[in-house]
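Lab notebook, bench 4. We co-purified these components, and the gel suggests they stay together. Before we commit to crystallization screens, I want a quick structural picture of the whole thing.
Request: model the full complex, all chains together.
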Amino acid sequence: MDASTSAVVQFLNNNIGLVAGIGKIAIALVIALQVAPIMVWVERRQAAFIQRRIGPNRVGIFGFKLFGLGQPLADTIKLLFKEDFVPKHVNKFFYILAPIIPAVMGLVAIQGIPLGKEIVVAGHTIGLQPVNLNAGFLFLFAMSALGVYGVALAGWSSNNKYALLGGLRASAQMISYELAMGLALLPMVFIYGTLDLQTMIAAQSETFGILPKWGIFLSPVSFVIFVVTMFAETNRLPFDLAEGEAELVAGFLVEYGSMRWSLFFLGEYAMMFTLSALTTCVFLGGYEIPWLPHAELVALLTPVFTAEPATWVAALIGLGVLIAKVAIFMFLFVQVRFTLPRFRYDQLMRVGWVYMLPVALGNLVLMAVIVALLRLT
Amino acid sequence: MNLVMLSFIVMGVAAVLLSGVMITRRWPVSAAMVLISVMTLLAGMFGLLDAHFAAVSQIIVYAGAIMVVFVFVIMLLNLPPEELRYGGVTVGEMILSAAGVAVALVLGTKVGQGYLSVGIEELGILKSENSLALHRPLFGPDQNVKNVAATMFVEYLWAFELISFLIIAAMIGSVVIAKKRSAENANAA
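Here is the predicted assembly.
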């Protein structure tokens, strides 16, 4: 080992926290950026199947079909070669800023997701949650709340009535559903007694009877409300009133084209992934294999590999499990999009304020009473 | 200079500058957007002080909820750019500004005193019982949420509930006042 190598090793040893932090953030960014192309493929393909269209589900290059994998490639090439056009009548600064906000917020929010328990590298234990504030998952809420400004600003800066209406709808919808979303998660905070996602996941590795002690079994009402509000928060059908092709031509997107337009989708897909991962962590045991807590998995792997690489393999398996669970939700998003019709605007507001909010409040009170009674005994 | 200090200086300077930018914007939407960035910067500074819960609630409550309503109203009314006034400053405005500066100075030095006296106390110079620095959180600095909950729901429960009662009264009052006016307008029309 020459002098320069040992200097690098020493630097890594001294700054393990910093290096590991940058590494974790980079991994989460890579995952978030891969969501959009993969989801474009899944969505186009599934849409073609449901609508019985020949095309995006089998498009290929040079006769190789590859499950329609040519479609995202063709889409990307088309978007990149389109003219980057800024209409004359827009407020230029905000018009350019607007698509950046949802994309950035989607990429930042994913940093709050625990990608695994921890790995041990050269004696240092590294937790696998890129950003672990002691306000827990509220960080995700904060970032997803800021994402709506992208839509609102796009609507306003486009200087177009349809776009403005889309932006207005998005902001009203977000305020209406964010309340129910928060109230749906509060019972889980009572049950686990923490806001920290790692502690929540550890608590869910226990079992009662044959069922794993997942949040979905502890408070099913919370789960249903959370999933419904998740659709509303990400502006997906049946809640995509901000776009509403039928009445608003494309809402806030109407003046956007080429890569600016696709930045909105990058943000939307990243936020879908993040919220699905949050659901997974709170209700479905996160990165853990059901009935097999992380510690037992590491114990199983240790004889095969040695002590430290066992934690690395366990982390990889955990990441795979997390992504598999998230994939179920992502597929649900796609399936719902082509199954349910869009709400009317008054229906949207009625669902939010008259059904979601009171049910979430009632569930909150009920769970609070149950948890308090269980604590007493 | 470490990373925390550097971030604090960058964010602090940006927050002060952007506050200035905010009050000079002509478009209400621009002003609202700059205000949101100032709030985000403030949240960042809370985060540097390890007050993660304060940082996150600053963003959720102010930037994520209240400002969304502001922006919604601005966009709904489609407010035109504010006309700049060149009429000069009136005496009343000057007196009000001076009073504002005085209040800011008093509050700033009171809070600053408490904050600064940590260092002074260690030197044995000052031992003020009212110093904010002596008011330690119950559960240690890594238990943000517990500290807030203990203060809000145990120590100051009655004050907290009374304030929420007052806010509800104010809310109902504003709805009643707004309703009355629109009913009169409807009659007049």
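Chain B has a mean pLDDT of 79. Worth comparing against the SEC data before the next meeting. Chain B touches chain A at residues 27, 29-30, 33, 36, 40, 43, 47, 52-53, 55-57, 59-60, 63-65, 68-69, 71-72, 75-76, 78, 142-145 (CB under 8 Å).
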